[in-house]
Amino acid sequence: MMRHCSLIVLSFLMFCFNAVAQNKDILNLTNAFIDTVKSNAYSSANVNWDSVAPIIIKKSCGIKEAKDLLPLFKMVLSDLRDVHSSLQYHETDTSIKEDFMVQLRQMAKMTDADAGLPPKNYQSYMIDKKYAYINIPPVRLEQAKYIDTIGKQLKFLDDNNPQAWIIDLTENSGGANYPMIWHFASLIDVDYSYSDVLNTGEEKKISVVLRPEGEQAKQVYDILELDPKKRPPIKLKNTQVPIVILTSYYTASAAEAFLLHFKGQKNVITVGQKTYGLTSTNQYYEIGNNFSLDLTISVLKDRNGKKYKINEGVNPDFLLPFDHSNIKTTNQLLEAVINSKKDYIEKALEIISKPSNFSL
């Protein structure tokens, strides 16, 4: 079948060469994109490459500008049936890598207000002078400030010797994983928690603390001021107590990864609704000098051996009923979650009040 596909693709390449020989760069981009997705996407098997590749190559023959390939490439991504992959087009005369580093330095200086994002909902307090509550907001910008703020909140709570922790992910749609989990390492009873699983079956255990691999990763974290030596995770004292993690359908992506660091730990119980279902890992690829691709290359597997399918959310241990019937947008969902916060916390307190719910 592979030989048959190769012959079809070759015939279309010959057609394109004869029809529009000047579009060699377009054809190279198209082939590079197809090869990257086919070879690396976790859901590559969902695509009938024998059929799709020749069609995409043929359609690319009439295209003169690289940016006009975007709809074609997105069509291929849609066939993956994976909502976590995304494609970007770059209007630049420099390499994407140089463009990326410039943008990264700009991002490191940008505030939420600069980007038109709402301020982060930092909340933490003691409940009845016994239980520590902390809300973990999503984080994309201001990552160093985020780490420092969460650290101060956790230290204050820990100094009050809580008898239980309530960690709230209900308003967290994701962003950057390590700034979220940064100061929680001492609450997690292993050094490596969940796994990334490739479609080949190969697994990689994920560290609960940041361990940059490669010079580019170190450079990225240096620009973002995410150096564990300069910002060491705090050591919490009150770790052998019940932990309740609150989730909602709004909980997604990096917030789901945060959850899986704890999932399966004996003193941890999750409460709320099934999470959104971005339980997968993306890899960044450059396609020529114009396109970059965040491609889903693996799914997550928790420490109990549960491997999550593409677009599969994480079920809570205790389901809290939630009416989605009148919710049409993500903003409406977030508003409904916030309005129901009292119900989440009351359920958490009910569970904490029964020590038999936990294995301590």
Strand content: 15-25%
Structural class: alpha/beta
Provide the CATH topology of the largest domain: 2-enoyl-CoA Hydratase, Chain A, domain 1
Low-confidence regions: 18-22
Order of strands, widest sheet: 2-3-4-7-8-11
Mean of the pLDDT scores? 89
Would you list the SSEs in sequence order as H and E?
A: HHHHEHEEHEHEEHEHEEEEHH
Main beta-sheet strand count, sense and barrel state: 6 strands, mixed
As for the number of domains, it is 2
CATH class of the largest domain: Alpha Beta
Signal peptide: 1-21
Pfam families: Peptidase_S41
GO cellular component, one term: outer membrane-bounded periplasmic space
Protein name: Peptidase S41-like protein
Describe this structure in words.
- With 360 residues, the chain is of the alpha/beta class.
- It has 2 domains: 2-81, no CATH class; 109-354, 2-enoyl-CoA Hydratase, Chain A, domain 1.
- The protein is built from 11 helices and 11 strands.
- The strands form 2 sheets. A 6-stranded mixed sheet has the order 2-3-4-7-8-11, with helices on both faces.
- α1 packs parallel to α3.
- The longest helix has 18 residues, at 2-19.
- The chain starts with a helix and ends in an 8-residue tail after the last helix.
- The relative contact order is 0.14.
- Residues 18-22 have low confidence and may be disordered.
